[in-house]
Amino acid sequence: MNILFCDDDPEQRELFLRRLENLGHTIVVADGGREAWCHLRSRVFDVVITDWWMPGMDGLELSRRIRRRGDGYTYVIIHTARTSQLGIGAAMRAGADDFIPKPISSGDLADRLIAAERVCTVYRGLREREQELLRLNRMIERQARTDVLTGISNRTQLAEDFAVLGSSADRYQTPYAIVMCDVDAFKAYNDHYGHILGDRALRRVAQTIAGEVRASDSLYRYGGEEFLAVLAEQDELSARRVAERIVAAVAALGEEHRISPYGVVTVSAGVAAHVIGTDPWDTVASADSALFAAKDGGRNQVCGFSRGGLGEKLA
């Protein structure tokens, strides 16, 4: 174990240094509480053995500081001639785990350190399990917000992001736009090619859309074959350009779709820019209206949302 021994008596330091090294431990010595505290702030020790009475900072104050840190567990042993019940109680209340009476034999010291090592081993095991649980919880949280099929964010993540976006966009006057994309004639594709190829097509479409938006934008699987992109700091015109690139890129995949008049998998897109004072879901509704107009107008195209509530086809 890594052990810090603290005593203002040089003879005691030399004695314990030899004994602890003979027991196979790694030892650092300090001539008082202040020096010990400096060591503790720069490295991790399994055990601290400290004298009680020392000038500047005594062993009880050092114990209290160790316990207040809260960044791991250090087993504290008070080395003292005060072996009365009152003295032992004061040491325990200050944060000590054990005490070693002066003088102590090498055998007694070894026995105390066996108990200390047992506690340290249990603590390390608990810490490792705690870290593993935290890792698993983070993974579960991430999976709960990720679409299993496509690997992009899902509706749960969208709802959480919108809760933040709704308050920040108006407060900071930050523009954004929403692009809604829908795979054209996807039910017919599934019926003709089967769900395995349908899933593959959705993954390819998702990857293609992701490749056309920036890292600062957000992409979600909105529904079965619907995708929603939030374009940060984009007005309607720039968002339309992004949507046009998405539509062209998906068609360029050349994914066969014999049921479609275009012969390949395509998407339609609706675009709407956020209006100050409205909710993000209002912008989604506007983009969805524009998407409907794009589908109704022949598919494989982009429509923007007009203030009159209808989608207008882009030139």
What does this molecule look like?
This protein has 315 residues and is of the alpha/beta class. It has helices at residues 10-22, 33-42, 59-69, 85-94, 106-144, 155-171, 186-193, 195-212, 236-252, 280-296; strands at residues 2-6, 26-30, 47-51, 75-80, 98-101, 176-183, 218-221, 226-232, 267-273, 302-305, 311-313. The strands form 2 sheets. It has a 6-stranded mixed β-sheet, with helices on both faces. A 5-stranded parallel β-sheet has the order 2-1-3-4-5, with helices on both faces. Helix 2 packs parallel to helix 3 and helix 8 crosses helix 9 (236-252).
- What would the average pLDDT be, to the nearest integer? 91
Which sheet architecture does the biggest sheet show? 6 strands, mixed
Strand order of the largest sheet: 7-8-6-9-10-11
Q: What is the radius of gyration computed over CA atoms, rounded to a whole number of angstroms?
A: 34 Å
Number of domains: 2
Using the coordinates above, name the CATH class of the largest domain: Alpha Beta
Ordered list of secondary-structure elements with their pairings:
Blueprint: E1 2-6, H1 10-22, E2 26-30, H2 33-42, E3 47-51, H3 59-69, E4 75-80, H4 85-94, E5 98-101, H5 106-144, H6 155-171, E6 176-183, H7 186-193, H8 195-212, E7 218-221, E8 226-232, H9 236-252, E9 267-273, H10 280-296, E10 302-305, E11 311-313
Parallel strand pairs: 1-2, 1-3, 3-4, 4-5, 9-10
Antiparallel strand pairs: 6-8, 6-9, 7-8, 10-11
Helix pairs in contact: 2-3, 7-8, 8-9
